[in-house]
Amino acid sequence: MTSTSAAEPGEFLSLLTKDEADDLCAAGRKRRWDRGATVMSEGDTSDWVLVLTSGRVKVSSYTAGGTEVVLAIRGPGALLGDMSSISGEPRSGTVTALEAIEGVVVRDFSGFLHDHGRVAVLLLEMVVSRLRDSDRKRVEYGAFDTTGRVATRLVELAERFGEPTNGGVRVALPLSQDELAGWTGASREAVSKALRSLRDRGLIETGRRRVIVYDLEGLRKRAR
């Protein structure tokens, strides 16, 4: 059994009924990975999916020059590896644990979808949502400067993973500046400069693998 209430809103598991979630988890087996572990590798041909039940991961890809591009951050309730499982094609990205994670590995995901038609429709809707998000990010890269893109990502992190603290919202996600650079399509130096600009405006405070947002609305305005 698993809890859909523990899933991050909008992630796959949160969309299922309790019976559907129980059936999905009963079709697999539990696994755990330590922080920094590679969960899935780009180009791999394995066909299992992972239902993330706790912890957070990054999904990334690498350029021909070896530069990491962060595609997404996923939290509890996320479904990972579904595209390869359905298409039979190699993995399109690498999934890395940002902290210790737990999940359920399901090998016959197509069989589960065959027996649960409503879930198959939900998956289709989720894939469409991902494509829309991808399109939105491509627009950001062309329309926003580096500081705007960094502000956008910090707003997203604060809204998804923020924890209230004195006078602000603390983002406890263990994301390095290099990873933030890979997520915004910028160099580490450009991201460092953008963070300094946002600090000088009093919008944020930064520390080792943490950010405190003091003015979320101001950060949203800078993102736009």
From TrEMBL:
Please give the SMART domains that the UniProt record associates with this protein: cNMP (SM00100), HTH_CRP (SM00419)
Coiled-coil positions are none
Where is the HTH crp-type domain positioned along the sequence?
144-217
**Superkingdom per UniProt:** Bacteria
- Keywords noted in UniProt: DNA-binding, Transcription, Transcription regulation
Name of the protein described by the UniProt record: Crp/Fnr family transcriptional regulator
Q: What is the originating organism of this protein?
A: Sphaerisporangium dianthi
Tagged with keyword Endoplasmic reticulum = no
Q: What Pfam family does this protein match (any one)?
A: cNMP_binding
Q: Give start and end of each Cyclic nucleotide-binding domain.
A: 12-97
